[in-house]
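G.,

No rush on this.
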Amino acid sequence: MSLSPKERLASLPAVIAEDWLAEQEEWVLADIEKGEWWWVARPEQHEPPGDWFIWLMLTGRGWGKTRTGAEWIVDQALKFPRDRAGNATQWLVVGQTLTDTRTFCIEGPSGIIAVLKRRGVRHHYTKAPKPMITLQDEGQIIYFEGVDDENTGRGYNAAGAWLDELGKWRYTHKVWLEGIMPSLRADIPGGRPRCVVTTTPKPIKLIKDWYRRFKSGDPAVRVTTGSTYENFVNLSPDTIAEFRREYEGTTVGRQELHGELLEDVEGALWNHALIEKYRVTPGMQPAMKMIAVGVDPAGTGTADEMGIVGVGRGVDNEDYVLADLSKQIAGRPGARRAWELFLELDASVLIYEDNFGKQWLTQVMGDAYKEMQREGLFPPGGAPPMKDVHALHGKRLRAEPCSMRYEQGRVHHVGMFLELEDQMCTWVPDEDVDSPDRVDALVHAQAYLRSRERGRANIALPGGGGEARGRMPVAGVSAG
């Protein structure tokens, strides 16, 4: 395990350490007293060499990634105060939520304000309506965001970015590809816009893609991995003991403590390879016999989104995931969004879970439908084509039949639904009883389609010729 200069000095005999300190210049001793970054940082906490674009830190809790991110972006802002046109540079910091960004990245003991104060950088901190820090000597601005909607990160002319806990974000791919990445476009002299990502490893597609690029030798991506135990000397022994007691020997521990990026999450009901194997290109799916829109209201799962997923049963009796319009939305706007997908897909029924505020949700969905009737979007008269589902069993029991159909190759994603697929492949029922909202919406829709199908059985050919290639309906036999 590599050590910081501070740790190396502490490992020496006292006499040698005292002699070394006595030989140092005043500025060195002043830096040591302040705990400057060059003194306390381990080698892997310094930025890697080369002309990279993304520096991905996949490390365990307590490794020091927040401090590393804060030190890096302050250093960059001071190094590149102005772009080639003479304008003060802009910098972007994005966390899981705006509250997390403020608490950990700005105001925390390892945050940006602590770094600025230690370095004596004059600055002005604006807290509302959105946090921003202006460096007063040159006017550089550090903007702060939380991933509260799909448009996060749009419109900046950023010279660099720090993305914290990206593995836990909502809308990860859309925010990166359509918001943050295009905003890293400032023309800075002697450098290029760069992005540092500090996160505990989660096997979501974006992180896995970056990791594969690094492993293949792509110079644009650098990866640093590390364990909680590498920062042992700076952590409370009680905290370390509790971490070990809670996580050691578990899948979560491999991710959260040892910083391992697991391709397949042990205990998850789905995996990316299985989804990819049976994926179809949009336009290549067969005609649909029935389409259901599954809805799971915000507040019933872990993502605090309204899950809205459309699934069809094809004429080939296979299931096809057609759309995912899930979003952090609720009430009337959420209900209208669900009915809009219903119209877009020409669906047969809308399925929603009734356990969470049944009366409220039924009323809101019904009112939105009638409102759209008056607008001429639905035929006049008649009740809304929606059906509630009763969640009498645990989340695992409800999701397992759905995952079994994937294993049988009877479910196909029409195109890519990256956020949904990441939730499917990282949710471990035995470790988190609350499933993500997108997964719940998927399960509601597929469970309804499964309940409507007629039983089937394989029919043996006469004379022992094996099984027939087709399936013949057999009354009373469930194929779910």
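When you get to it, here's the other one too:
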Amino acid sequence: MNYKKRVIIAIIFVLLILSSSFADAQSAALSTGLTYLQSTQSSDGYWGAASEVPYNAFVETCTVADSLKAINAISPAYATAIQWINTTDVNNSDYLLAKLLSLSQAGIDVSTIRENLLSIKNSAGGWERRDKPA
């Protein structure tokens, strides 16, 4: 075997070893992160401070639920979060969009949320700002 082929084989071998150790480290970090998320979820299903319900806690919960779905970490924590998102009443366009995206990814019908979001669209094509639920 010539020198170039040996070098290429050696490089491939080193990359395989590095990628397998990186995957193990990533798996451990992911597992630790999932354990942390499960331990910090409220019994009602949201993440964040109770004083921030539904506002900041709503956005945080949608973000965590979307992340869990993206990494295929469907679990009781995910199901509880989706239930909380689904039953929490929000009217702010940002929160409605977050709700629509999270619930649609969970396979829940979002036509009513979509209609609600479209109903607060203004004549200029933007959305009315509503900081708190009506």
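The helical segments are 3-40, 55-70, 76-87, 93-105, 111-119. The chain has two domains: 1-40, 44-134.

Enjoy the weekend,
O.
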